[in-house]
Amino acid sequence: MSTPTTSAKTTWAIDPTHSEILFKIRHLMVSNVTGSFGSFEGKVEAAGDDFDGAHVSFSADIASISTNNEQRDGHLKSDEFFSAEKFPKLTFESTSFKKIDDENYELTGNLTIRDVTKSVTLKAEYGGQMGDFYGNTKAGFEISGKINRKEYGLTWDAVTEAGGVVVSDDVRLILNVQVVKQ
Q1: Looking at the whole model, is its pTM more than 0.85?
Q2: Closest C-alpha among 40, 76, 43, 81 to residue 59
């Protein structure tokens, strides 16, 4: 009786020293404010070295949010936005990681911010694989997409005296991620 063969799983972990988790949001509808999360972790579990069909999990610590403005960062951590004390992490669990061509993937999964979970589809541009100076195999992705902040309970709003919107509803996500084979 033969035993069934199982495909080897390859686990890749995010290298936080060579990755950045950014977001951009329109302010006063004339320019963008950029923010980032300084503390995050994630992994990719794939069949072999091919990422098609891989499972991606990710989390970021809300308390690590930075927009280079302490007052604004405090507001973002408050109950009017992320409510960092009640909901200390945002998380993502993939439901699909589909190879489009040699350089592009479509990443779909459940993004949870505060107590709201919604499906989101992101573009993942594959940068390739390379060995580093220490014998580690690394791979890179630039992941991008857009979410509506109000769908996740980030509903604070204000209007200027002239009737202008202070903060856009749409938030652009830009993740430059380097993963290292475990």
Answers
A1: yes
A2: 40
Tell which CATH architecture fits domain 9-181.
Beta Barrel (2.40)
How does DSSP classify residue 149?
G
The reported pLDDT for the residue numbered 6 is: 55
Domain ranges of the chain: 9-181
Q: How many CA atoms lie within 13 A of 57 on its CB side?
A: 4
Q: Which of 93, 176, 114, 111 is closest to 147 using CA atoms?
A: 111
Instruction: Give the type of residue at 123.
Output: K
99, pLDDT greater than 90: yes
**Mean model confidence pLDDT for the chain:** 90
φ and ψ at residue 64, rounded to 5 degrees: -90, 10
DSSP letter at 2?
Answer: P
Q: With contact defined as beta carbons under 8 Å apart, do 109 and 93 qualify? A: yes
Residue 54: Cβ-neighbour burial (10 angstroms; 0-12, 13-18, 19+): buried
